[in-house]
Structures are given as C-alpha cells and as structure tokens.
Amino acid sequence: MTDDVAVRITGLKKSFGSLEVLKGIDATVGRGEVVCVIGPSGSGKSTLLRCVNLLEEPTGGKIVVDGTELTDPDVDIDAARVRIGMVFQGFNLFSHLNVLNNLTVAQRKVLKRSPREAQEVALRNLERVGLSEKVNAMPAELSGGQQQRVAIARALAMDPAVMLFDEPTSALDPELVGDVLGVMRELADEGMTMLVVTHEMQFAREVADRVLFMDGGYVVEEGPAAQVIGEPAHERTKSFLARVLDPTHQRPAS
Amino acid sequence: MALSKRQRAKVFRLAQYALLVVVIVVLALAADWTEVKRAFFNLDIAASMFPNVITTALKNTIVYTALGFAFGLVLGLVLALMKLSSVPPYRWIATIYIEFFRGIPALLVFIALGFGVPLAFGLQFDIYSTVMLSLGIVGAAYMAETIRAGIQAVPKGQIEAARSLGMSHGRTLATVVIPQAFRIILPPLTNELILLTKDSSLIYIIGLAREQYELTKFGRETLSRSPSLTPILVVGLCYLVITIPLGHLSRHLERRTGGRKIRTPESTGV
C-alpha cells in the first residue's frame, strides 16, 4: 500500500479554537502524481497542505506520508519533514544567508552532508530552476519569481519524496508567475510527486493528474483535471469556476 | 507697512542671532582668560596625565566594558530564551530576574559583589571578575528584553521554512532565529554597550590598585593632586572617544536595517 501511495490522508480534522476549518478530509496522492487543490479562500486548502507536514497540528484523523504516520504522537517529525519539501506563498528564503547557503544549510546540518557534497547538490538544483548565476546573491537582491525558484531548489536539495506547494505564485507580479509555473511543470514532467494549492486554473488543467475542489472544509469534488475544471458536477464547483474564469474576476482576493 | 508672516519670522530669527552674538562677545570680554585656562585647560596637568590616561585608564575602561558586555550578552540571551520558553517556571525566573536587576541601582550590584559577597561568603573575586559579573548581571537584565523582542521580530515564515527542512526547534533557533534576531537588535545593543561603558565607572567604589584605574577613577585621582577641572575634562573626552563613534555606528546600523525591508536600487548604492 505504501509503495504506490505517497500521501494518504484519512478523516483529517483541524480546528482553530471553535472554528472548524477541516471537517473530515480523505485524500491520497500517488507516487509520481500531481494533485492540485483548488477552491475559494477560506475553504481550508492551505490548512490541509500545512497539515501534511505538520506545520499545523491536526485535531483528528490520520496522515501518512512516504510510509510514516505523521499523526503518531511518537513520530520523529524532523526526520519525516526531510522527506517532504515545502514551498510557501511568501518564499521564506533565509534572509541572512545568500542563495548558496540557503540551499546548503539544511543539507549540512540536517542530512549531515559534507560541505562539498552539499554545494554540488545545491548547484545542481539551482541549475534545475535556471538560477545558477545567482549563487552568491542575497535573497533581497532577487525578484519574487527568482526567490520562489530558489525556494523550490532549496526544497529539492533535500531529495524529498513529496513536494508541497502552498499558493506558490499568489505573491508574485503577474509577469513573474510564468517562470515559477514553468519550473513546477518541469518537475511534474520529471515524475515528482506534488501536492499543489493554487489559483492557477490553467496550470491545474494542464499539469495536474487529479484536482480536488475544496469548499467549507470538505473536499466537494475530485477527479481528473479535465473533468473537475472542464465539466464540474457540483453546483459549488461550477459557481467557483465561473467566478475564477470570468475575466473580470480573474484573481479573487485570497 | 505690514510685514508678511514669512518676513516677520525672518526678522525675529535675525534678532535672535544678533542677541546670541552680543552675549558671546560680552562673555568673551568679561572673562578672565588666564583663570579660565587654569581651571579648565591647564596644559601642564593634561600633559602629565599622558600616556597613562590612554595606556591604563582608557584601556581598562574598554576591557572592563568588554568583559561585562560579553557576559551580559550571554546571560541576556539565556534569559531571553527562558522568557520565551514554554516551561512556565523558566518564564517566571527570567521575569523576576529582569524586574529585580532593572529596578535596583547598578552601584548596589557593584557593592554587593565588591564587598557583600566577600564579607558574607569569604569569597574574594579579582577585579576583572567583579566588574565582569557586576556589569554583566545588570546589563543582562536590559539586554534580555531587547533580545527577546528581536527573537519575536523574526518573521514566522523563517521558522516554518527551517522546520519544513527538517531542522529541530533548537537548530532552528541557532541557525535561523538568533542570527536574524541579532541583526535586528544591533542598534539597541550598541546603545546598551554605550550605557555599560559609562556604568563601568562604578567600579571606582571598590578599592583599585593604580594599574587597575579606569577613566573616572583616574580623573578623580589626578584631580586630588591638581586643583583644576582639566583632569575631569580630559577623561570626559576619553569617554566621548568611545561613546560618540558607537552612537554613530548605532544610528548607521539602524538606517541600514531599517532600509533593508524597503530596499530600492537607489538605496542599495548608498
């Protein structure tokens, strides 16, 4: 079972105080599969993603990633997180370190790789995202799109089994979105397992193997991208997509 | 002919300058310059203070301050981490410590370590330990609050990124949070260093051997041999040699860290 399933979420619940954000989510991501999570803001998409590496502690349910049950109270969460790459909406590059050190610091301190090996891995992954020439730059000297690509390279340098993307292009100027989506598309083509929360319907339609539509703390609809986005069955999916795809409401505030 | 508001302001300003010039001229004419020179700028006395004022007094002031600051910084960091701990007793201890040592005069701590501890416990510290502990204990109370604020000012996303890469809580603190916190609090920490430089003078309360004199004690001792304010003026200037550059450094760092968030092509070139 763990061989073909990278992420298995069962009955996941999460409350913040009295506010129940996730009301029982069941979902899986197969190995090599790209799953996009779409839905209106406040539907719990980001919370779901953040539960998958335990940045948010679930209040109920079970999460298994790469064969490790994260919801087991005795789990070594730091060891488990090494296998889960996370890309944030706000990039979150370490602002006091240059690009190279952003990519090597966790390799050296967590994976105990030698400085030389860490650097080699870092340079290889910087090349992957097309930013080899920025190796000595500080994060503040990079555009948002470049920062996000460095953040992707930083996560990849840990050789994760799964990559999580939390609205990776939502904080970017429109003209920079394409570069980041391009890198993600390549990753998908290379067979990376990806769980992506996004508002980019075009990307979801073209790259995702499956799409989950979330609303009000539930997965309302799921299926192949063409089906969920192209021919949604549920009324709520239809009205959400109508609003998102309507040019005058292209980017709903998140 | 009525003056406009702007013209009235101009006339008023000129009048102030004129008054100021008159006062200075009158004072300069009335003053007994030889007496002023004797009282404040006696070059013979000033010359007699060199080179010891630099090689002993200034050097000792810097050494005492550095020792106190180093110890205070370490203790302050420990207290800041205790204050932010999830273990309530740690927080209580840190709060009590900070409130206590911020609330009492530093001089009292010097007396306690210089006289109290030796009398009570028969424990005699050397001068360096006394000044390091006294300044450090007091400085830590102030620095702890500054460091705590700095740690809390590190964006949450930085911590989440580090944890997501598999770093433990402790490693995240050491690798990401504390280095960034210190960048943020460099300006207030520099101000703390200036305050400690001045507080290092309190060691005079404890008997010092001649080679242990710092600036204030040195000035006072010279004064007892020379009836002039010159020695005080000289050691005062020596303090300024330390504190004014530190003040400029602090303001420079403040501008730099303040400008980092709103970095523009223009500001990076400056």
What does this structure look like?
The complex is a heterodimer of chains A (254) and B (270). With 254 residues, chain A is of the alpha/beta class. Chain A contains nine helices and ten strands. Helix content of chain A is 36%, strand content 25%. In chain A, β9 (210-215) and β10 (218-224) form a beta hairpin. The longest helix of chain A is centred in the C-terminal third of the chain and has 16 residues, at 174-189. Chain A is globular, with a radius of gyration of 18 Å. The relative contact order of chain A is 0.17. The model of chain B is unreliable at 259-270 (pLDDT under 50). Chain B is flat, with a radius of gyration of 25 Å. Chain B is built from twelve helices and no strands. Chain B has a single domain (56-268), classed as MetI-like (MetI-like fold), CATH 1.10.3720.10. Helix content of chain B is 80%, strand content 0%. Classes of the chains: A alpha/beta (254), B mainly alpha (270). Chain A binds chain B through residues 53, 55, 78-79, 81-82, 84-86, 88, 90, 92-96, 105-106, 109-111, 140-141, 151, 154-155, 158, and chain B through 155, 157-158, 160-168, 171, 175-176, 179-180, 183, 260, 263, 268.
